[in-house]
């Protein structure tokens, strides 16, 4: 067996060195781009000539056409046979000729990355020719999708988020996350530059849609890839918002203010300065519309997008960027402040699946909360031909306080078991500091990289809580507690690493080492204020005048302190084959081994130290081409060491927490695949599939006392949790003129959920297994005859099949669906009306009140003045007053139905003013 292994290793080594030897005899590649010196855009059809250092012509070609999308203006030669210096000449009618030098330093180089050749306009320009053509919504070339913003009708006054929500194949979540063809957008750029990257939601809600020319979606090479000249595994899937020329240079702004019924109000302003050297963006926003800036007029909106409760927001911010050298080296700073006031009310009913009969809990909750958040991110990014450096310094501070109260009743199938009244007061402060430094130096065909990161967090929480628990069916006495917790948590994390990338034309091999040190310290003293002598036990939210008196009422059973240290060493071999002939795709393989050593020093009525050491093998393989991608990986993690302490915490008398020293390491297995087909008439067919499995998942097992209604919760390691998912997205134009389009998104999800639950008196816990199938679909048919009219029919829904073999479990077959229509019409006298009417329905639920039908109608009427600079808007939200904010959730332990208060219907009138100042041409 050992002989066979040795022969196999020898064969692999011979194959590798034969490949390297063959590579040395092949011609090398030189590639670059020809750009317009003024606009920085690629020039299609430019003639490019490759010459030796003494001007002998070797080869010639032309740059890629406009169909190349992001690669427009690019060229390449496969003619560099000798190490040495070369000259490249570029020419184009209407431009002055230009030259650029380059050099092949080693035949191991993947290719020679030639600096951009910038062509200046010739003094004799041809007269401008205006071409009027049909507006195409999108163009696809390779892995780049380019959307034409002018091809989408939007309600006057729309922001960037409204435009993105209309893009074929795009999905915008309530939290501001963007997905295109099922893939998550990792970064939102404006004119190729970071813009409020710390919070892309700011750009989505404040950048006016009328400023946008095109939106490009593509895999952007990272700094390491740009420096090395080939893929270094740092590509990111980005959305680049290209502004119209009149807004790309100069000043622009948008100011809006409005007032409505039910005391609704809003005001915001946004200003921006752009040039080829500098950018500045400022914004301010104040509203009590639940921070929901979308007009709810496109058919993409759903009732849950309103959010829970009533939210009033104030925010102000600034983004500044300065180009240092070219387009990739820059320094920038983004800073903003946000103040929120939240009024939340909820009514929830929970059913917990148990042996011998389920338990039920009914809860009424109300809270008032306010917070202030300050955020600052400062960056210095340097990218040269031979090196790059990424430097980020981020700071954030959040201060919040709130009051809440609740009324909770627990029962079984026959009678009420307990009732608890609670009141809480919370004051918290959170400080975050982050420092990131990453560097790389190009050494001919190789690259050395190193990084150094520091993160620190400090969080304090001062909590007053008063709980009055009364047992209805047992002889247990009333349990009254007036508590105070003064919690302090500090986290520190340091990570550093180094790698050396060996380049062999299409192949890269990179050994890597990473070290991570983390430190976590928490103090959680709990005081029983109801046990203070000579003091009213009902006095709430107030400490005694003599602070020393707190030491006498320290609850030792529920007071704890701990310090945790972790050291992690990661050794990895990274392999990248950019042009695998076997699979006709790019292959990336990671083979890391990670050693983790953690120590927890825990005090709660004595010492409870925990030490844990593990070795994890976490391989990952990625296959990628322009039209498909597949990723498979294994990952592991330690359980939270504080849950491995053998303790009992009854600070909440209804829910007693226990630790479990028997928890095991957690292992995840993930496979995802994505395939995109493209055809005529803007056709896109996207298919994605995934499988996710977790071994030793931490399930919080429940032990229920049927006499008192008290639940004991303990973490347990369980196996069997797995998920399958599949999605199909299809978009295309249905007619020759491409005025009628269809967008259909379908999904299938299966979740095999395993949990633990038992009732006191039974000998062992029961595995609660629930199989949850979810089938979903969204269909949208759009008709856009011209710029003045657009109509859409839309519908969708989700069907749930929830089954379990557990005794007493009632299978659920239920669904939510919606159907509606919206339209946008330009009327005489510069009026525009936009409206959406949608029916939302729920069917098949056991609770009759859940089976409801709601008609939601939103409308907007606008009128522009002063050549479109002034816009008057009248907006109606939930005109029929049928909005319901009820949610239904189910897992292996039970099901919960929750109602939240939500924003009332309103009518609002607003005025907005936009301006644009461009530098005068000389």
UniProtKB/TrEMBL annotation:
Pfam families: OMP_b-brl_3 (PF14905). Residues 769-913 form the Outer membrane protein beta-barrel domain. Keywords: Signal. Residues 1-23 form the signal peptide. It comes from the Bacteria. This is Outer membrane protein beta-barrel domain-containing protein. It comes from Hoylesella oralis ATCC 33269. The lineage of its organism: Bacteria, Pseudomonadati, Bacteroidota, Bacteroidia, Bacteroidales.
């Amino acid at each position: 067996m050992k002989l066979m292994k040795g022969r196999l290793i020898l064969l692999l080594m011979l194959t590798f060195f034969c490949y390297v030897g063959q590579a040395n005899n092949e011609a090398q590649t030189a590639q670059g781009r020809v750009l317009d010196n003024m606009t920085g855009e690629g020039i299609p059809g430019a003639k490019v000539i490759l010459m030796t250092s003494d001007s002998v012509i070797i080869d010639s070609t032309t740059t890629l056409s406009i169909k190349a999308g992001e690669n427009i203006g690019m060229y390449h030669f496969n003619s560099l046979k000798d190490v040495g210096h070369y000259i490249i000449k570029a020419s184009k009618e209407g431009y002055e000729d230009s030259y650029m030098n380059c050099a092949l330093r080693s035949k191991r180089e993947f290719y020679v990355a030639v600096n951009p050749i910038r062509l200046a306009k010739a003094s004799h320009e041809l007269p401008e020719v205006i071409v009027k053509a049909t507006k195409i919504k999108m163009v696809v070339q390779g892995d780049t999708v380019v959307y034409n913003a002018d091809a989408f009708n939007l309600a006057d006054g729309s922001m960037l988020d409204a435009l993105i929500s209309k893009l074929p194949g795009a999905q915008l979540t309530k939290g501001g996350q963007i997905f295109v063809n099922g893939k998550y957008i990792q970064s939102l750029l404006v004119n190729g530059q970071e813009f409020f990257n710390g919070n892309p939601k700011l750009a989505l809600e404040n950048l006016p849609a009328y400023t946008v020319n095109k939106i490009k979606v593509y895999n952007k090479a990272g700094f390491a890839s740009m420096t090395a000249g080939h893929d270094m595994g740092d590509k990111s899937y980005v959305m680049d918002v290209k502004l119209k020329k009149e807004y790309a240079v100069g000043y622009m702004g948008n100011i809006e203010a409005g007032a409505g019924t039910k005391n609704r109000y809003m005001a915001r302003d946004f200003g921006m300065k752009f040039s080829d050297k500098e950018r500045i963006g400022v914004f301010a926003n104040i509203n009590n519309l639940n921070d929901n800036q979308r007009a709810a007029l496109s058919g993409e909106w759903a009732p849950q997008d309103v959010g829970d409760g009533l939210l009033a927001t104030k925010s102000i911010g600034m983004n500044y960027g300065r180009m240092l050298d070219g387009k990739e080296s820059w320094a920038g700073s983004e800073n903003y402040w946000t103040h929120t006031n939240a009024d939340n009310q909820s009514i929830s009913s929970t059913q917990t699946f148990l042996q011998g009969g389920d338990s039920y809990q009914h809860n009424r909750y109300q809270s008032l909360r306010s917070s202030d958040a300050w955020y600052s991110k400062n960056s210095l990014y340097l990218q040269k031909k031979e090196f790059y450096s990424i430097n980020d310094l981020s700071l954030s501070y959040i201060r919040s306080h709130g009051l809440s109260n609740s009324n909770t009743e627990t029962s079984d199938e026959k009678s009420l078991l307990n009732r608890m009244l609670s009141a809480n007061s919370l004051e918290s402060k959170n400080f975050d500091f982050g420092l990131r430094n990453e560097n790389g130096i190009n050494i001919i065909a190789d690259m050395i990289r190193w990084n150094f990161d520091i993160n620190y967090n400090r969080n304090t929480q001062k909590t007053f809580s008063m709980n009055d628990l009364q047992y209805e069916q047992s002889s247990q006495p009333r349990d009254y507690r007036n508590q105070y917790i003064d919690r302090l948590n500090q986290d520190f994390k340091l990570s550093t690493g180094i790698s050396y990338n060996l380049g062999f034309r299409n192949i890269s091999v990179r050994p890597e080492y990473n070290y991570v040190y983390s430190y976590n310290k928490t103090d959680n003293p709990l005081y029983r204020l109801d046990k203070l002598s000579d003091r009213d036990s009902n006095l709430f939210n107030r400490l005694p005048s003599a602070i020393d008196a707190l030491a006498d009422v320290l609850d030792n059973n529920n007071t704890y302190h701990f310090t945790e240290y972790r050291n992690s060493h990661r050794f990895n071999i990274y392999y990248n084959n950019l042009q695998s002939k076997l699979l006709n795709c790019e292959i990336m393989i990671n083979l890391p081994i990670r050693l983790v050593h953690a120590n927890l020093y825990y005090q709660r009525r004595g010492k409870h130290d925990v030490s844990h050491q593990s070795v994890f093998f976490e391989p990952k393989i990625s296959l990628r081409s322009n039209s498909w991608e597949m990723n498979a990986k294994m990952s592991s993690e330690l359980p939270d060491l504080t849950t491995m302490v053998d303790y009992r915490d009854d600070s909440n008398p209804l829910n007693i927490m226990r630790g479990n020293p028997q928890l095991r390491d957690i292992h995840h297995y993930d496979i995802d695949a994505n395939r995109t087909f493209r055809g005529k008439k803007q056709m896109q067919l996207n298919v994605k599939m995934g499988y996710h499995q977790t071994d030793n998942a931490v399930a919080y097992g429940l032990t229920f006392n049927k006499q008192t209604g008290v639940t004991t919760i303990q973490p347990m390691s369980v196996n069997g949790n797995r998920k399958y998912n599949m999605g199909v997205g299809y978009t295309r134009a249905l007619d020759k003129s491409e005025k009628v389009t269809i967008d259909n998104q379908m999904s299938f999800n299966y979740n095999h959920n395993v949990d633990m639950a038992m009732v006191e008196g039974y000998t062992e816990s029961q595995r609660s297994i629930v199989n949850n199938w979810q089938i979903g679909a969204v269909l949208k048919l759009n008709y856009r005859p011209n710029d003045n009219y657009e109509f859409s029919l839309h519908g969708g829904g989700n069907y749930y099949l929830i089954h379990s073999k557990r005794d007493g479990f009632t299978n659920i077959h239920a669904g939510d669906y919606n159907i509606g229509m919206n339209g946008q019409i330009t009327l005489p006298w510069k009026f525009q009306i936009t409206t959406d009417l949608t029916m939302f329905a729920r069917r098949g639920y056991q609770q009759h009140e859940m089976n409801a039908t709601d008609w939601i109608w939103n409308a907007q009427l606008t009128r522009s003045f002063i050549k479109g600079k002034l816009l008057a808007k009248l907006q109606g939200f939930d005109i029929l007053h049928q909005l319901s904010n009820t949610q239904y959730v189910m897992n292996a332990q039970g099901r919960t139905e929750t109602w939240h208060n939500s924003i009332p219907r309103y009518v609002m009138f607003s005025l907005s003013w936009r301006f644009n100042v461009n530098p005068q041409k000389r």
